[in-house]
Amino acid sequence: MKILIVEDSVLLREGLVRLLEDAGHTVVAALPDATSLDETVDATDPELCILDVRLPPTFVDEGIRAALALRRRLPQLPLLVLSQYVEERYASDLIVAQGSAGPLGYLLKDRVADVSEFIESVQRIAAGSTVLDPEVVAQLLTRRNQDDRMRSLTERERTVLAMIAEGRSNQAIAGTLFLSEASVEKHITAIFQKLGLEPDESGNRRVLAAIAHLSSTGRGGAPAGPTQTGTSR
How much is the average pLDDT of 9-17? Predict the structure, then answer.
């Protein structure tokens, strides 16, 4: 199989070349960044492209953007994305873009250390399979479960939760929505139950509910750019 690699780390790039060639594959190119990726793909006609998520010059999302661009331009080209962390946004972007496109892999870089497992993953992707790192799957399922809880809220409960996130008291919420405080308390109790927030001595359920709301609306106050939601690899 003809394989193209895009990886900025010299050690990892050369290590991948050696592993893949020892396994009988041909590395048609090993690039340090994605600046000449399109031209190299056209010139070498690879059967699989391996890309790091983060590449020069900013080391933010160049690799994932290059992968998505390749997916749009050559939808049947098998792709394997390597990441140092479980990064939900990037994994989700790739999976959403998958549709009826070609094979896809998203693995953490520590999988490369298990040579037989890595080579098997490469072969499975080339053969048409989608291969996702178990930790990536676990993170995405956790996020989906949280989203399902948010979807279980009624429209009124969502409004009350948004006001909680704004720091409003029960009395202020009642006055704004023309409800009794008892009704507001019932809505809040229902919100806590649907979000799985059990009573505790610290009384922080209100804060946790507000965080859940902000997370679901993308206004959690995180700095711009990708969020590393997994452990360092």
Answer: 96
User: What residues contact 158, with CB distance under 8 A and at least 6 apart?
Assistant: none
| Cα gap 66→37, rounded to integer Å | 8
Paired sense of beta strands 79-83 and 48-52, if any: parallel
Instruction: Quickly list DSSP for the chain.
Output: -EEEEE-S-HHHHHHHHHHHHHTT-EEEEEESSSTTHHHHHHHH--SEEEEESS-TTTSSSHHHHHHHHHHHHSTTS-EEEEESS--HHHHHHHHHHHTT---EEEEEGGGGGSHHHHHHHHHHHHTT--EE-HHHHHHHHHHHHHHHHHHTS-HHHHHHHHHHHTT--HHHHHHHHT--HHHHHHHHHHHHHHTT----TT--HHHHHHHHHHHHTT-S-PPSS----S---
More confident residue, 8 or 204: 8
Close Cβ partners of 142 (under 8 Å, ≥ 6 residues apart): none
Average pLDDT estimate for 104-112: 89
Cα–Cα distance measured from residue 67 to residue 51, given in angstroms and rounded to the nearest whole number: 7
Residue 226: pLDDT over 50: no
Measured CA to CA, the distance from residue 123 to residue 129 in angstroms comes to: 9
Domains of the chain with CATH codes: 2-141 (3.40.50.2300), 153-217 (1.10.10.10)
pTM above 0.90, yes or no: no
Residue 24 in contact with residue 47, Cβ under 8 Å? no
